[in-house]
């Protein structure tokens, strides 16, 4: 599956409607972004069960600001609507494959339990 382009209007529904979504935040003028693009595209072809999406931070400045994207490229991964990975910098192919595998292998019940525990801790500290 080729990569898809996301906008502020489409990102929420895409994350909600798919089990795993990887999002590459990039800009045309960004050299590392240009070098990462073919790595991201190749991985999208190897994992048809994962949505590989791109957000042009120049065209979607408000969305990038809302998600606190401060450097590009930044890769975010969502599983079952939950953000589970975020890293700035162009990843080499083998590292991207490790990220995809790790996201696929996550125990989402455990992830949700940790999120609930974390939120509970913050609620008692407030």
Structure description:
This protein is α/β, with parallel strands linked by helices. It has one domain: Glutaredoxin (3-Layer(aba) Sandwich), CATH 3.40.30. The protein is 48% helix and 22% strand. It is built from five helices and five strands. Strands 1-3-2-4-5 form a five-stranded mixed beta sheet, with helices on one face. Helix 2 (31-46) links the parallel strand 2 (20-26) and strand 3. It is globular, with a radius of gyration of 15 Å. The relative contact order is 0.18. The mean pLDDT is 94. One of its GO terms (molecular function) is protein-disulfide reductase activity. Belongs to the thioredoxin family. One of its GO terms (cellular component) is cytosol. Keywords: Disulfide bond, Electron transport, Redox-active center, Transport. It holds the Pfam family Thioredoxin.
Brief rundown of the structure:
The chain is α/β, with parallel strands linked by helices and 126 residues long.
Task: Please describe the structure with a list of short key phrases separated by commas or semicolons.
126 residues, Thioredoxin_domain, alpha/beta, Glutaredoxin, protein-disulfide reductase activity
